[in-house]
Amino acid sequence: MKFSSRARYGLRAMIALAQGYHRGPLSLAEISRSEDISLSYLEQLIAILRRAGLVEGTRGAHGGYQLTAGPVSITAGQVVRALEGPLAPVECVSEGVEAGYCRRQTGCPSKALWGQVRDSIAHVLDTTTLADLCSTNELEVS
Amino acid sequence: MKFSSRARYGLRAMIALAQGYHRGPLSLAEISRSEDISLSYLEQLIAILRRAGLVEGTRGAHGGYQLTAGPVSITAGQVVRALEGPLAPVECVSEGVEAGYCRRQTGCPSKALWGQVRDSIAHVLDTTTLADLCSTNELEVS
DNA sequence: ACAATTCCTACTAAAGTACCAGGAATTGTT
DNA sequence: AACAATTCCTGGTACTTTAGTAGGAATTGT
Known about the structure:
The structure is a homodimer. Chain A is elongated, with a radius of gyration of 17 Å. A two-stranded antiparallel ribbon of chain A has the order 1-2. By secondary structure, chain A is mainly alpha-helical. Chain A is 53% helix and 6% strand. Chain A has helices at residues 5-19, 28-35, 39-51, 76-84, 109-126, 130-141, and strands at 55-58, 64-67. Chain A binds chain B through residues 1-4, 7-8, 11-12, 15, 76, 80, 84, 87-91, 106-110, 112-114, 116-117, 120-121, 123-125, 128, 133-134, 136-137, 140-141, and chain B through 1-4, 7-8, 11-12, 15, 76, 80, 84, 87-91, 106-110, 112-114, 116-117, 120-121, 123-125, 128, 133-134, 136-137, 140-141. Chain A binds a DNA duplex through residues 4-6, 25, 27-29, 38, 40-41, 43-44, 46-47, 50, 57-65.
């Protein structure tokens, strides 16, 4: 029961972008250095986030990436879902899976539990914004 | 971000055992039929649960497995941890990992978030007993 | 022209998952 | 004593996913 390194690294990259939000585009080379993630892997992760519409890139010298919305408007849930797909501790309660997925469905005792697990994860991720995560950092670092 | 089929199947098997708690040992062949899990795979899963002290087996004809405690005293958290290991959405916040695991540790903004995710999962699993899961079922089925 | 960057695609080594196969040990029943 | 039902143990294996690497094309400021 682990989130992939995609989600871990991707979230860290998004936090880095949130921290530099007012300072114009941030290059992956910089994030790669500060977060110690290989550049080529980071490129793949950011590509996913770009396709999800969370960041936009500007090419060429002095290019880089920027959030498409302010850190207060982007939740950890959006980032994690973009990188990992729908939250689904088990398939039968995956976000976006219609009822009738399995015949055990009706009256399956464990299904309700997994649904609660999914909801509690979703609640934490969806009520935390990138801004929240940045301020945590500044508190600790200062 | 998924629980393995070990956890899914194992929990279902434990619920089946809880439902037959008063009726003496339940054989894996029966669970295999009712839950539609292959016998040999089920044997492996139950072996894990036995080593964790959650069930005990009695060999020979009319043998089978029984919970070592009543369904009210066994939580889903115990079952899932036995099958999956410590709850750890990411390694650095794994249950039982001491501080200082990674140098980013102090002031890592994402670490706090993953810790909250872990705690919310743990809360759901640890406050749900096998008895709770059985009663859910009976309500639905009746 | 060139250097810095994003963007794209394909590949790969390692690990983990979800099983299956085969048999040994134990115990009730006939 | 034989047998059938069961737990218990070990080892293997096909498959999928993960976590990357490699190489290069396109774009843009200086």
